[in-house]
């Protein structure tokens, strides 16, 4: 009873944050339970060469984000008219259906088609950020965004390990069925756990017709955060299509390949889970720019030496360190956008951000597939280092342009 009274006394934004945290956890766990083994799943569908396997894996990873990039602004405009809760439900229900059907894929082309459809209906985590950002007090924004990130990242930590055990024991299809079930749970939690007090904008009003960027403070910085989201996703996701194949190359024995790949895929999540709330709170105190720049420098300093790794153990160490860098990146970009954006435009701005993240998630895996196919898996880490350097230049330029130190 005491626990119920405590929950009843919490402000609405906190109750929503806790419920959405669980939804984010389910989304992160489900996606990461299946995605690290996508190349291994595809390899069971035909006798493919390394080039074909790299290419098909890159397409299967990135096509979800391609459709997401196209439709996100449409969903964002709809969210500013209908509220963010309907968008959370749309994403959760859409992924429940498509993830389950992906587990039934008879060949690689059906799998790719289902991944395309999934992208059009996905976006739970980004809509979660938008809903919470529209309600959270400004002085708690960094800490709350950091906490929200631990939901998806906590799921991404557990997902690959359980997914690896399940895939080794029962095959690569079962994790997709579990992904579908977890998204069904996210749907139920969102229906009953999230309450949104939403006032729709009159579609004929000046506010509805003007650009989403019209009322934004520090426009160069907000655009830099959107571009940063794209480059962070490109660098981070460029590794995903090749991680299990690179682990296979480094291993002398291929027993428990899926489990070991899952552990390596989960290590960044462990680090981000530990670091994200602390770095978010630190950003509230010292300013998000310093945290973001430090994260980018660390990211480049980790990607570069990963090129030289010769053992799975060293790969795991560097993947853990990249998780710490990630904790200083995406939550901070979300915080900066929420602080600088009027509430009535926040869904549209976050939807543009989601589009750019999705574009990064297309470019990263596709470039990685080409680099891995033409050169070698480890050259992908050099490509990621270059993306981080470009990102750092963009951020420093934007802060100088808007006169903020």
UniProtKB/TrEMBL annotation:
Domain (Major facilitator superfamily (MFS) profile): residue spans on this chain: 16-403
GO CC entries: plasma membrane
Annotated TM spans: 21-42, 54-75, 87-104, 144-166, 172-194, 215-236, 256-279, 291-310, 358-375, 381-399
Keyword Phosphoprotein on entry: no
Membrane topology: Multi-pass membrane protein
Keyword Membrane attached: yes
Localization, UniProt: Cell membrane
GO molecular function terms listed in the Swiss-Prot or TrEMBL record: transmembrane transporter activity
Protein keywords: Cell membrane, Membrane, Transmembrane, Transmembrane helix, Transport
Name under which the protein is recorded: Multidrug efflux MFS transporter
Organism: Paucilactobacillus nenjiangensis
